[in-house]
Design goal:
It contains 15 helices and 14 strands. By secondary structure, it is of the alpha/beta class. Helix 4 runs antiparallel to helix 15 (384-397) and helix 5 packs antiparallel against helix 15 (384-397). The longest helix is centred in the last third of the chain and has 18 residues, at 333-350.
Length: 399
C-alpha cells in the first residue's frame, strides 16, 4: 500500500491511493459514474487514479478537471493476455491500496494483475449483465470473482442474477447508483415538450422499439415529438427505420449531448426502452428534473421507477404498450406533473451521489477479509492460487 501525506487547511494525514480500471472513458452511464466518483470523493483521505484499457475517451478531461490522473493504455479490442502483465507492472509502480474494476472486461485483465502485483484489496462493480455475452464469457466472469474481495452490484436485481450464476453471496453487496441531484434542479415536465431519451445507441437500449412506438402513437397525437440523444453503432439503422416508418419528421436524433440537464428541462417525459439495465443514471437524472418516466420492466429499473407513481413500466420489446404509456402521459399533464414531483422526491431520498460515494469509501477502507482470501484460493504469503486462476481463465477464452 502506498500512503501519501498532504497538508490542507483542516488536516494533515495519509491518503489512500485507489486505481479504477475501465474498458474506456467514452460517454455512457458507467463512465459518467466514474466522473462522479472523481468529483465527490473525499480528497482528504483518498487519491484516485483512473486507468482506461482503451483510449482516453470524451470523459477523461472531466476526470482530470477533478484533480485525478487518467492513464490510457490504448490497447485495441480483442483478447490480449499480455495486458495482464502490463497492468501488473503498472500496479507495482503505482502501489495502490485498492484496485477497483468496472465491467467484466476490466476485471478479466485487472483482477489477475492486481493479485500478481499483491494489491491489498480488489473491488469489482457489476453495472449490469451483458445480454450479448456468451455462456463462456459469463462463466469466466463468475470464475474471476474469486479474485475479488468485494463484489458490488448496482441493484438488487443484478445481485440476484450474479448469485444465480455462481458469484458467492459472501463477497457481494449492493450499492445503488447515484447522481449529483444539485446539478438537476426540479423543473417539471413541459406541457408542449418532446418525449426524450438519452442512451448509448446499441442493441441493449432497444431504441428501435421507441421508434416503432412513436410511429404507433403518431396517428393519435399529431403534435407528439421524440428526441433521441446519444451516439452508437445503431444510429444509422435507426435513422433508416424512422424514415421507413414515416416518422423521420417526428423523431430527431441529436447525437451526443453534453448538457443533459438543459435537454431534460425542455422535455415533457423521459423514455427508456432497454432490454437490460442495472440502475440507469439517465432515468435518475430525468426524475431529478421532475420528469415522468416510461421504461421497460427489466433489470434494476423497477427499483427506481414505481409503476403508476413516478411513471409507467411496460414489458420489454412491446411497442404497443410503450406507445400506450407515452400517450397516457401526453394526454394527462396533471398526472405527468404529479409523477414527476414524486420522482424527484424519490431520487433525493434514495439515489443521491453523496450516499453512493460514502458507501464506496467505506469499502475502500474495509480492506481484505481473510475469509475472502481463503475462499479465493489466495494466500497473503503466496500468489500461487492467483496464478492458477489466471492461467485457467485465459485458457478458457482461447479459441
Amino acid at each position: 500500500m502506498e500512503v501519501f501525506f498532504v497538508t490542507t487547511l483542516n488536516q494533515v494525514g495519509p491518503l489512500t491511493r485507489l486505481v479504477h480500471v475501465s474498458f474506456g472513458l467514452d460517454m455512457g452511464g458507467q463512465e459518467k459514474l466514474l466522473v462522479e466518483l472523481a468529483k465527490h470523493v473525499d480528497r482528504r483521505r483518498f487519491d484516485h487514479c483512473f486507468v482506461s484499457l482503451g483510449n482516453r475517451g470524451v470523459l477523461a478531461g472531466d476526470i482530470e478537471a477533478c484533480g485525478s490522473q487518467v492513464i490510457a493504455l490504448e490497447e485495441p479490442s480483442g483478447l490480449k493476455p499480455g495486458l495482464i502483465l502490463r497492468l501488473a507492472r503498472l500496479f507495482r509502480r503505482l502501489r495502490p491500496a485498492v484496485v477497483h474494476t468496472h465491467d467484466h472486461r476490466a476485471l478479466f485483465y485487472a483482477g489477475p494483475a492486481a493479485r500478481l502485483a499483491r494489491v491489498p484489496s480488489v473491488i469489482h462493480t457489476c453495472h449490469g449483465l451483458d445480454i450479448r455475452a456468451s455462456r463462456r464469457q459469463v462463466l469466466l466472469g463468475v470464475y474471476l470473482s474469486r479474485l475479488v474481495d468485494h463484489y458490488v452490484c448496482v441493484s438488487e436485481d443484478v445481485k440476484a442474477q450474479c448469485h444465480a450464476l455462481g458469484v458467492s453471496r459472501t463477497v457481494m453487496c449492493t450499492i445503488l447508483n447515484g447522481i449529483d441531484v444539485s446539478r438537476f434542479a426540479y423543473s417539471g415536465p413541459c406541457s408542449d415538450g418532446p418525449v426524450v431519451t438519452v442512451a448509448r445507441l446499441n442493441a441493449e437500449k432497444n431504441i428501435a422499439n421507441l421508434v416503432r412506438a412513436a410511429a404507433l402513437a403518431a396517428s393519435q397525437a399529431d403534435d407528439l415529438r421524440v428526441e433521441i440523444a446519444g451516439g452508437g453503432p445503431c444510429l444509422a439503422e435507426l435513422k433508416r427505420q424512422a424514415a421507413d416508418l414515416g416518422v423521420a419528421g417526428r423523431v430527431t436524433f441529436l447525437g451526443e449531448v453534453r448538457d443533459v440537464p438543459l435537454l431534460l428541462a425542455r422535455a415533457g417525459a423521459f423514455v427508456l426502452p432497454s432490454l437490460s439495465e442495472g440502475i440507469p443514471l439517465t432515468i435518475l437524472e430525468a426524475m431529478a428534473r421532475g420528469l415522468p418516466v416510461v421504461a421497460t420492466r427489466v433489470g434494476g429499473i423497477p427499483e427506481v421507477v414505481v409503476d403508476g407513481e413516478t411513471g409507467f413500466l411496460v414489458p420489454s420489446d412491446d411497442s404497443a404498450a410503450l406507445a400506450g404509456a407515452i400517450l397516457r402521459l401526453w394526454r394527462d399533464p396533471d398526472s405527468a406533473r404529479r409523477m414527476g414531483l414524486d420522482g424527484r422526491c424519490r431520487v433525493e431520498r434514495l439515489f443521491d451521489v453523496r450516499r453512493m460515494v460514502a458507501d464506496y469509501e467505506a469499502l475502500y477502507l474495509a480492506g481484505r477479509d481473510p475469509t475472502t482470501l481463503a475462499r479465493a484460493g489466495c494466500d497473503q504469503g503466496s500468489t500461487s492460487g492467483d496464478e492458477d486462476t489466471i492461467r485457467a481463465g485465459i485458457a478458457a477464452v482461447r479459441p
